[in-house]
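Thread: Newbie trying to understand structure tokens

Hi all, I'm a second-year student working on a class project, and my supervisor (Dr. K.) asked me to get a predicted structure for one chain before our next meeting. I've only ever worked with sequences, so writing a 3D structure as a token string is new to me. If someone could post the tokens and maybe explain what I'm looking at, I'd be very grateful. Here's the chain:
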Amino acid sequence: MLALALTVAGAQEQADVYDLQRRVEWLATQAGAGVEPLTPVIREGTKLEPVTLVAEAGAEDRAWQPGESVWREQGGTLVVRDARQRREPAIALHHSFSFTNEGDQTRLLDVIFPWKPQLRDARWWDGRHERAPAEPEFEVAGMSFRLPMSTALGYDRVVTWTPRPSPGVALALDPDCLLSTWTTGASGEEFVGALSFRTRIVLDPGQTVGVPLVVFTFPHEDGFRGAVQRYYELFPERFSVAEGTRPSLIGGGGYLFSRKLTRELQWEEARRFGMGWEWAYCPAQTPGDWYADERFYDPEKGYSGDVDRHRNTVPGSLEDYRRDLRERFQRGWWRTNIAYYMLPHAADLSVLEQFPDGVMVRKSGEPSGISVGWIKPDAQTRMTHPWANSYGQEVLREIEQIAQDYEVAAIGFDEANMDGPHYGAGIDGDPARAWDDEGRVYCAMQVALARLGEHIHQQTVRGYTMATVMNKPTSYPTATRADVGMYEWPIWEQTDGIEELRLLMGHKPMSWWKPPLPEKILAWETMSPNEIRAGVAGIYDYIRLMSLRWGAFPMNMQVWDVEESVKLMPVLSEMLREGWQAAPQFTADKRLWTARYGQGVRSFFVLANPTRESVPAQIRPRSTSLGSVSPDWHDTLFCAYDGSERTRERDERESSVIPLPDLGPHEYAILRAAVELAGAKGLTGSALMALDGLSEGTLDAAWTAAKAFEGTITARIPDRATPLTMVVAGEEREFEPLDGAVRWTGALPAEGSLRVTWRPEVSVEAAREQIAGFPFVGEGDALATIVLPADPTDRDRYVAEHLSIYFDYWQRRQEQPFGQVSMLSDVEPGPRLPVVETASAEIGPRIVFAQAIRPTVQIDGQTLVIAGPDDAAREAAMLRLLELLDARYPHAGAFPEHPMYQKAGMVGRTLEAAIRNPGGTNP
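---
Reply by user tm_fold:
Sure, no problem. This is what the structure looks like when written as tokens:
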């Protein structure tokens, strides 16, 4: 009986210990207890001769102790330092290793950092795959698709009774550090005995090179995704879009292919289909000449014209070329973020004649092979290593010229997955250098591309940080320096790479980049019309569900013609502004795809059903903070994405559940976090939000906890909304305003309620019917006139012009619902609202842009006022007005002429219209 009592007591104690959120320090001590310090093992040269280090000074031999340890080579000139530091928000110890060569000969060092966590039956994840333990051998694939971390997940060896899952442990590289080679390893046969990180560094006489590492723990429940999530929390600046970039870059990519005659129509095309950026093809006339100048510009090959296309088909002078580029990038800059398209790894031979050190040199010492006709029919290019050589320095200057002259929102790299080593000029002294098995020194091309990305982020255009869009940034150097990562494969091919690229990109958006081409996928010649429609629907369903699962935007060609896809784009945009998260923090039926966006009360939960059958959609959320590690118990109440009510209940096992309607085939559901309560246990309750109010919104919630508690209640409000009141348990409280939330701390009853009110970013002081009925146009003519504000800015003029073409765009799209924007120039123009500086009494209905304390849309008789304190606020008000007008003037595209669509009765119609009415001819 005594033994049984001890066992039960011990089990109860361990259950309490594994309340991870209330045992933060326990996590740290368990992860570090009895662990050997992180001491490098160094071998030198191609023979890997051991280098003996002697400890000179340091803190206690405990891996979790801060301080500094110093080792000196016995009888030699190599000094190694490890400056250890504890850091929040995650439980981690940062090791700032530095290697100093005090001698007069270059040293080639092979360094392994071993770490022995105290786990048993631990499995290993190598930064890409879960697999059996293996020694840290360098692989041909190198850095491709891998996070620089080695991770173990198992059971705690300290526990002598029934094993319980322990926190996972990880050894990882600080992604600020650029390395040309690295690998991870784990000792053991079936299970992990020790983790390791290995790299090769080159040390010139007098040089110091740093290799910063971090060891950390993560919750067992999230598996290896929990390690990735904690890694994001440790280095948020590397796994988030660069600070200061334009928020409108968060959105889908695609091809607009406009002309000067239709340039302003592309603004509305981009808005309608959720596009945040696009390529601008061939801005450079010769690959490798980033900012074309007199040295390399060839007027016979040069571009002068008004169509955004791949090829340079219209000859023109250098000044013509620059003029057209300025027009393309700067006109309507506020709405269409055009990425300056570059091939950063290639340069034309005519360029390299003046910068011969830019040629990428192979291991043999020979330059890389010549590629003919890759971009232009007669172009001959070589691979380049654009960094510290004269060519690379020229590229850096030209990036600055691009920012100053063309004012581009971003520079796009096509492609960023070139992973070859460069043995040539420009790498002398580079701390990222490595060496191969023959002892030859090189630098990885990924390092060069990452440094170009860093230089791009140093440029400011119109007050914003210039961004980087990278095609296939399949290594940590490029992924951590990119702001948008393109996946330029069909998303039904190489699907393993999708998750791997997603984990590399962190919270940043990804972008699918292949048109779906149903006519090439389906065997439509032998299919019935109904089967064709079902097949096309399945393709677009898959794109939508994959986009929700992985935080990726479909390009416009994957959105056109499908009403549900068009509706999804602003949803994806809102969620990805909060950021995709590696750990969902909830469980559901295993047949469903799950995802989480955002942290804390700004979170979203996503369920998607990829099957052809209905699946129960009950969610089991974690009783934990949806953000960083916290010592407090957190529970969250959710509503549906549209704000409708959802409840949180307890099942027969007293587990927390959120019941949802079953998800039908290819359906999805999104929950919006609404209220977070810190300190409440045994929580049940419900929440709903009125998100569609024109001038005010509300959040209502009610909860029941196991008992009254002292805690914090945090309530969500929409982006850029102004909180008005917060009523807790029937009493109005003075709240703390946060970014997108309000918070109050105090005594909370076991049964309580909450009501929060807010004013949306744009206050619409008119009924929807008034806006729909305002006399903008009539019988194909413009009736209203737009009046600019006093002293209008360039942005004001753009905003007014965008509003002026709204009806013109819509009417032309009714005549030509498919095809490129450039083709709309052939369609008879619709009504355009005239824009004037001042209004006369005779002009009739008017739309007035005006100054106001906050963004507002008002109607007073025949006057519609779009107001705000500055031009950005007035643009927000104008866009809100267009959202309301879309209900009356919808457009989702239509399928083009093609025998398959003709057979299925889909030409000139959306997918949903063709399914709703198979025999009809009109949407």
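A couple of things are worth pointing out once you decode it. The longest helix spans residues 529-550. The mean pLDDT is 90. Feel free to ask follow-ups in this thread.
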